[in-house]
Amino acid sequence: MQTVDRRAFLKLAGMAGAALSQPGLVPRAFAQAAAAPPAPASSTPAAPSIISGMSPQMIVHNAKLGVMETPLPLLREQRTTPKGILYTRQHFPVDGEGRWVATIAPMDPTVTQEWTILVSGLVQRPKTLRVTDLARMPQVKRRSVMQCAGNGRSYYWAKAKTPGSGWKHGGMGNLEWEGVPLMPLLKSLDLSPDQRVRYLTANGRDEPAVSGGADMIKSYKLTAPQLDDAILALKMNGEPIPTIHGGPVRLIIPGYYGNMNVKWLTDLMYTEDETPSAIMQKTYRMPIFPVEPGKFTTQDLTQENSTPTYGFAVMSVVFAPLAGQSVQRGNVDLSGVAWNDGVVPLTSVRVSLDQGRSWIETELDASDGPYAWYHWQRRVRLDPGPHEVWVRAIDAWGRSQPIDGLATWNPGGWDWHGVDRVPFQVG
Ligand SMILES: Nc1nc2c(c(=O)[nH]1)N[C@H]1C(S)=C(S)[C@@H](COP(=O)(O)O)O[C@H]1N2
Ligand SMILES: [Mo]
Question: What is the CA radius of gyration of the chain?
């Protein structure tokens, strides 16, 4: 749909390389790779050799694309997830030589001077926004969860394997974004959108690995409440957004799954319909009714029988105790986080220690706002022996989590939000 200006990107890439005072255009990661002895084909390289600055403890799902998740023991340590342990995922190499966008200087901010966003589509007066101008406008903050729609996918595999990375719960983080409110900005541009317009469509500077491949383009219903809280983000956790996480400018739609938050934003388009890109029409979609493995595939998905992975399902996770952990007898502190799509608040998070027969209310801390992690905790007295804690959140619309998460199995492996069950030992 869009012609991506690859040369412009490479120019910026070169500038970012120069800012690192690296000789020539060779990204640091590659300079290191060239010096190191070749790794045995079977072993997965450690995270920092794929993305410098990443914690060596990250779980690598795809070394070539730099897809990795945070181990739970690290994720639970901080209220705001630092960039060095934040999960990351990208779809394509960008420059035809197998180098993907993030190898340029993944943890550093991208050089912003020349970056522009074209606002076009079914409008009378397309406009170009410069990131340097955005930076001078009033900024707002959004504390929100960023989560891959595939987070928890590996748990579906108990029923049937799906394509995609085997995420546990670590394909998420709790972040603070800062930028320019999207909708007021678009309205101020005097674009005169056509009456047929129902969607906003976004594209980033990366492009498909093979020519003619599906581009990572995303469309949003203009009526979605989360769009009113969307921002063109320039900062993450108080600093310019690291390149790997979409700098210099990323579309942040709080409450929406990761794939809806387009990194390296270059285009916003007013459109009549969703983008025809297969990444919108087939990949990131879920059937709206139960389906069985083998009987329904991604190819069967249509606009009528499925929904894109837009807002987060209601979800909760146990952060303590960790699975398999041994805790002292007596008072046991259970804790964790919960979240939803932010449209209505979570009203209750309950735990069960008897396989769902009875549920105990937990204390809920919602002080980080409607799109961020809610923190829950509860002290219980437990006898020595094996135990299992289950956790379940409910929101003001009564939306909750299936007791058996496999009930929402779907061929893409999206939207896992089953009750979390964590076995542990009381000593
Ligand atoms: N331009 C672009 N934006 C993208 C992607 C991509 O490949 N290209 N991947 C998406 C997916 S699937 C996820 S889960 C998040 C990951 O964001 P992170 O790497 O900052 O954690 O970015 C989303 N935005
Ligand atoms: Mo994702």
Answer: 22
